[in-house]
Design brief:
Elements (H helix, E strand, L loop, with lengths): L2 E4 L3 H12 L7 E4 L3 H10 L4 E3 L4 H4 L4 E4 L6 H8 L8 E4 L6 H7 L6 E5 L9 E7 L4 H12 L3 E5 L5 H10 L1 H18 L4 H20 L5 H7 L6 H11 L2 H24 L3
Parallel strand pairs: 1-2, 1-4, 2-3, 4-5, 5-6, 7-8
Antiparallel strand pairs: 6-7
Helix pairs in contact: 7-12, 8-9
């Protein structure tokens, strides 16, 4: 599969690395990256990869899929530059947050074989989750090509509506920050209870990692698993009681919804650009 990336930053590098680890050849990849330091970094990490300073026929011709892996603010200019080169490309996928496919299609002169995906930062270690949505014009082939790319860095959840990508952004796109926020708190509590910073980190990280494995390997819902370690009148019950009294779970749900709402606002703003 021949893949052209528009943008050679961390996410593109992660996807390329994941696909190569899965057996792809470096010569299957071309990257359009204007920044010389990043070009040099890519050339060092992936010897044999094709590197271009700007969108051109040489960068795109023969590609099975073009992946737009640039900042949302750069998307309109990049899409307009691609418009004259993608007629024969089976599918174009955007992994830029907030850019809606109707706007992308408009900027690309009506090209509609489009997929939009929202990966998250664990993709950098090939443990990500991506929400994805495809326009009907992308067809089964376009979906399959996009899925092969995204599976190089984790799991893929196909969505039935594009607007659900705003929710994906709020839940899993921003989700790693929520997890890290929780780890900050658990580590801080351990230090206040007398552990060194290193000891506190070991306790917090190992507790979280082990619990995720436990939950992932169980058919029971998290609430039931939590109840199983919350003895009546015990230490865990007291801690959970304090969190419930402060409506922490409810506030967390509200916060995730706020992130999703902000994703929609950003999409509205980007779509207003002609």
């Amino acid at each position: 599969m021949n893949i052209t990336f528009i943008g050679g930053g961390n996410m593109a590098t992660a996807i390329i690395g994941g696909l190569i680890a899965g057996g792809a050849n470096a010569r299957e990849f071309r990257v359009v990256e204007p920044q010389r330091p990043q070009q040099d970094k890519l050339a060092g990490l992936v010897p044999g990869i094709g590197i271009f300073g700007e969108v051109s026929a040489g960068a795109v011709d023969g590609a099975d899929i073009v992946v737009l892996s640039i900042k949302p603010q750069q998307m309109r200019e990049a899409a307009q530059a691609l418009a004259g080169h993608v007629t024969e490309v089976p599918v174009v996928m955007s992994i830029a947050a907030g850019v809606r496919l109707a706007d992308l299609s408009r900027w690309m002169g009506g090209y509609a074989r489009l997929v939009r995906a929202m990966p998250n930062t664990p993709a950098l270690i090939r443990e990500g989750i991506s929400g994805a949505f495809a326009l009907p014009e992308a067809g089964a082939r376009g979906r399959k090509l996009a899925e092969r790319v995204l599976e190089g860095v984790g799991k893929v959840l196909w969505l039935v509506r594009e607007d659900l990508l705003d929710a994906v952004t709020g839940v899993s796109g921003s989700g790693p920050a929520y997890v890290l926020y929780f780890l900050e708190g658990l580590e801080a509590a351990a230090q206040e209870l007398g552990f060194t910073k290193a000891e506190a980190r070991t306790l917090a990280y190992s507790t979280f990692a082990g619990t995720i494995k436990l939950a992932s390997g169980s058919e029971l819902e998290p609430a039931i698993l939590r109840a199983q370690v919350t003895s009546k009148g015990g230490t865990t019950e007291r801690a959970i009681g304090l969190l419930e009294a402060d409506a922490v779970k409810g506030r967390f749900v509200t916060a995730v919804k706020a992130a999703a709402a902000r994703a929609k606002e950003l999409g509205d703003a980007l779509g207003a650009v002609d």
